[in-house]
Amino acid sequence: MTPPPQIPSADAPNSRTLNARLTADHGEIEGLFRDARMALERDLQAEAHTVVDRIWMRLAVHIRAEHKVVFPALVEVRPDLQSVLQALHEDHDYFMSALAGAVKAMKGPSPDVALIRAALEAVGLRLDSHNAIEEETIYPAADELPREQRLQVLEDVSRELAFLPIRHGR
Ligand SMILES: [Fe+2]
Ligand SMILES: [Fe+2]
Fold it and tell me: Where is the Hemerythrin-like domain (predicted)?
């Protein structure tokens, strides 16, 4: 007889790490980039506009959680990460302004699709390396904080990520 499929328990170590939680959010946002690319390729402008707007909002919420909770938790205990955190912060500023530009560019009657596609590609590319640094260095460092603090960070991040405007709900 085939054993039943393993369902990860809420107490399983991986579902209780900040790395797992935020990496899953990265994955969902990457999925939206694929949706946007597909909509643009098919010339579905209204759909592409909705998805790009959604990327912008999801990324804003994700970045806010990092700025409000994750980065401050590491600043004092890991001074060696200061320059990495600074570079990630600069990436965040770039993502937000490039995506705001793309959303705005899509609002016009005849948006320049090539330009929007190029902007999305540029953001997506920089986001790949940005996310890799976070997943390999920053989130694991936060997962090494003392237990109480680590659980507090995880709880605060989950609360921040759940706070999405209604029109952008999952
Ligand atoms: Fe980030
Ligand atoms: Fe991130």
Answer: 19-142
